[in-house]
Specification:
five-stranded mixed sheet, Rossmann fold, seven-stranded mixed sheet, globular, 14 strands
Amino acid sequence: MMDTMRERFVRVTTELLDEHSNLALVLADIGVSQFQGTIGFTETGAMKRFDGRVVNVGIREQLLVSFAAGMALEGFRPIVHTYAPFLVERPFEQFKLDFGHQGLGGIFVSVGASLDTAGLGRTHQAPEDIALIGTLPGWEAHVPGHPDEVEVLLRRAAAGSGPVYIRLTTESNAQAVDVDPGRMTRLRPGSPDAATVIAVGPMLDRVIAATRDMDVNLLYAATVRPFDRESLTETLAAPEVVIVEPYLEGTSAAEASAALMDRPHRLLSLGLPRVEHRHYGSASEHYAAHRLDESGIRERIGEFLRQSAAA
């Protein structure tokens, strides 16, 4: 049975702590049980093995980030982990000042993403996280679509020095893409006048199914900041571009438009709209309500392409 993204993150992080003496892990209660690895009454996981480099600050998210910044100032490369709204939104000032202003590096790994825990209500939803990270200069942001991609991106981040955000979800594509961190991957070529569709992370399987009989160039992005402008410009044939993202609609629209500023283009951004369905329900129910399920994506791309053809 395939690991979940979070299970792969726990395993690989434990291995990395063993491989790199400068790595540290900072938690805010979330994830403690996973890193304890308790068997019976014996603790076997990272919290026992790397005592002093694995710290739980409790439910104090501002302290979580500030403490990690202090470790970075002491020469450690901290891995910081909790749910997306508590990791990015609540301590955003600490992101901006404690890491950004001081020029520090760290690895921030979230779970929960946009709608993974939709049943817990709006407090546990963070479709705005990538948009917020995108306001910070010098940050990388990765949105893997498969546990194998999580491992590639996490190991690369551990070997680096800058600030990195990795967004984990409970959703996963059936197959991993052989990702080159920072670059989009061209998965399906279209005809010389085909539109270009960019699928981000866990949206890939839905986009493949939705466009299965459409003539499109299909690009896959597991890294969204910095945005790979070169791959888009190299692939673009027809003026039509569609971006399908698992978070706030339009998050990468400005990046795509900037890449194509000297070329005529029409852009459709599909993501979670700036409205709320204030009902409890599953992630799949919310995606369907926002027309981000397979049928909704298919209808919206088809309508966009028909309008372009008629223009």
